[in-house]
Recover the amino acids of this structure.
C-alpha cells in the first residue's frame, strides 16, 4: 500500500531536513494517476511548487517512492537556489550528495488505472473532420471547421462509439511498409 498524500508531505519534510538543511521551499506533493511512463515530475509554474508522483509505479515498486521523491526534491532545490531546471552539473552533484546514483529509473511503463474502454469519435460527414472524446456529448455540437463562429445545426457531428480495442500493428512496421509501397502487415 502506498502512503497517503499527507504522509508524502511528512516524508518531504524529513528528507528536506536530512539532505537539504530545510532549504527547499514548501512543495505540494500529490499523486497523478495519469502517469504511465513517468514515475514523478515537478512543476515550477505555481506556488508552491508541485511534485507529482505515479501511484501505479509505486504500487508495483513501493521501494522506489522515496528515491523518486528525493530526485524531484533535488530539482526543487536546484530551482530554489539557482533557477536551474534540468539534469545539469549542479543537479548531478547534489544528487550524488543525497546518495542517488542515476537520473534514470528502471520502473518501466505501467498501464493506466481504470482505463475506459468507451471512446467516441465525432465526425463531420461534410468535411471529414474528426475528434476523439471520452464522453458522449451532453449537448448538440457542430463541426468547428464548417462553422467556426458558433453551433450550427446544418453541420452536425455524427457520433461513433468505439466498442473494442484491437492492436493492428505499430508505427514502425507501418512506416516500413509504406516506404516499400506495400500495405502494412497486421
Amino acid at each position: 500500500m502506498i502512503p497517503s498524500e499527507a504522509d508524502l508531505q511528512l516524508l518531504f519534510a524529513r528528507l528536506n531536513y536530512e539532505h537539504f538543511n530545510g532549504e527547499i521551499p514548501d512543495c505540494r506533493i500529490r499523486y497523478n494517476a495519469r502517469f504511465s511512463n513517468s514515475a514523478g515530475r515537478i512543476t515550477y509554474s505555481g506556488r508552491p511548487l508541485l511534485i507529482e508522483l505515479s501511484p501505479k509505479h509505486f504500487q508495483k515498486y513501493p521501494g522506489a517512492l522515496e528515491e523518486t521523491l528525493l530526485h524531484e526534491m533535488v530539482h526543487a532545490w536546484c530551482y530554489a537556489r539557482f533557477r536551474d531546471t534540468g539534469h545539469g552539473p549542479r543537479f548531478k552533484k547534489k544528487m550524488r550528495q543525497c546518495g542517488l546514483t542515476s537520473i534514470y529509473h528502471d520502473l518501466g511503463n505501467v498501464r493506466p488505472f481504470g482505463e475506459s474502454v468507451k471512446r467516441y469519435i465525432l465526425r463531420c460527414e461534410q468535411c471529414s473532420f474528426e475528434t476523439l472524446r471520452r464522453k458522449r456529448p451532453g449537448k448538440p455540437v457542430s463541426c468547428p471547421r464548417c462553422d467556426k463562429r458558433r453551433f450550427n445545426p446544418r453541420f452536425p457531428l455524427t457520433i461513433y462509439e468505439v466498442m473494442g480495442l484491437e492492436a493492428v500493428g505499430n508505427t514502425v512496421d507501418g512506416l516500413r511498409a509504406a516506404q516499400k509501397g506495400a500495405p502494412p502487415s497486421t
